[in-house]
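Hi team,

As requested, here is the filled-out complex form for the S-adenosylmethionine run. I kept the field names the same as last time so the parser does not choke. Let me know if anything looks off before we queue the next batch.

— J.
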Amino acid sequence: MREFILYSRLGRTEPDWTNLHDAGRLDITHECIVAALFLSHGLRRNVTFHTILHGPPKPPRHIQIDGQILYDVRTDQQTWTNILKKTLSDKPHPGITTNKTSFEALVKIKAQQQPIYVLEEGGTDIGEVTIGQNPVFVLGDHVGLPKKAETFALRYGTKISLAKQPYLAATCITILNYVLDRKENP
Ligand SMILES: C[S@@+](CC[C@H](N)C(=O)[O-])C[C@H]1O[C@@H](n2cnc3c(N)ncnc32)[C@H](O)[C@@H]1O
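And here is what came back:
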């Protein structure tokens, strides 16, 4: 199992919007969902994706997408516009849950049984880190992780870097899936 937690600073917490970009950059959440959960012609059943939305009007809002249960999905923006609107309206979709769990509470819960890795350009190079079993990776959105959130997560985890260049959050997830795929199936 592997998990990703995307900290969304501005993602709107109600379905009162018309497109993902204007909904506090939920387009980044969509890109990360695709990178985390989709293979060509299939889903990654071993991945759970989380985002904590901190935008108005009612933050925080935790959305969890469980690749083991998820179905009836495609990769396109319209599919995820519909699903995210449905989720933010508290309507069910298989494999997707939402609640008021905060970023800090989620990290703390996960850290009880799983190793936490905080993604940041200035961290220890991933090549020098042994990734433990059932890892949880924490990422920021286009603005990056707020300092307070990063400091909190680092009480439980290790700061790791993929390269010195700042990548898109979704690119980081693709790289991590690739690295772990290669490690699990050499
Ligand atoms: C688009 S980046 C934001 C980069 C921006 N310089 C910042 O303030 O963090 C979004 C997230 O991807 C992760 N990230 C981007 N490049 C990375 C790298 N080279 N190594 C590790 N994590 C990275 C970080 O978690 C970052 O918060």
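Two things worth flagging: Residues 169-184 form the longest helix (16 residues). The helical segments are 26-37, 77-88, 103-111, 147-154, 169-184.

Thanks,
J.
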